[in-house]
Write a structure and sequence with these properties.
The chain is built from no helices and 14 strands. By secondary structure, it is mostly beta strands. It has one domain: Jelly Rolls. It has a six-stranded antiparallel beta sheet with strand order 1-10-3-4-5-6, with no helix packed on it. A six-stranded antiparallel beta sheet has the order 9-8-7-2-13-14, with no helix packed on it. A two-stranded antiparallel ribbon has the order 11-12. Strand 4 and strand 5 form a beta hairpin.
């Protein structure tokens, strides 16, 4: 799924942000790159704003155009996992099921006027690549608000929007 560019995806403009979602990866996808959500155009000369993806080592990255944080553990397969990336304007943290698995200094994120792609990444030729092999649900992008600052209990019912929620997709 691709959604046209919007200021709502420019995560660097309001300081704090949260991107969270549920994902259930098929075990057959172990050892391959898969993109959950991204603002990226690949191809010969790529343009990269930010993305959240699983690499061949089955760890999860939150990246910008020049740096990244990487989960300290691999993501589970064949079960639902809540993934959250939270920036409080000085530190960015990643959580699996409410447990912190990565932390680093806030990443500067470019505004490159790119579409938001869910479940893949743009290939730069009008197509997509690195498709998600599994399911996603409850994708929420919140700008100007860090929903969590330490370990938490993930939501057990549908996510709710706050005043700062810019996108909430229920894919059930």
């Amino acid at each position: 799924m691709t959604i046209a560019d919007s200021n709502d995806w420019d995560l660097d403009t309001d300081g704090s942000f949260t991107v969270d979602f549920w994902v259930n990866l098929d075990s057959s996808s172990s050892g391959i790159d898969e993109y959950f959500v991204s603002q990226w155009i690949g191809g010969g000369g790529y343009t990269h704003t930010w993305d959240i993806w699983k690499g061949v080592s089955d760890t999860v990255y939150f990246t910008n155009s020049a740096s990244y944080i990487l989960s300290s553990v691999t993501i589970d397969f064949d079960t639902w996992v809540h993934v959250a990336v939270v920036d409080n304007n000085s530190t960015v943290k990643m959580y699996f099921n409410g447990i912190e698995v990565a932390s680093g200094s806030s990443l500067s994120i470019n505004n490159d006027n790119l579409p938001l792609t869910i479940g893949a990444r743009e290939a730069g030729t009008g197509g997509h690549q690195y498709y998600l092999n599994g399911y996603m649900d409850e994708l929420r992008i919140t700008k100007g608000e860090a929903l969590w600052s330490s370990n938490f209990t993930p939501p057990t019912s549908e996510s709710t929007a706050t005043a700062n929620t810019k996108l909430l997709l229920r894919m059930d």
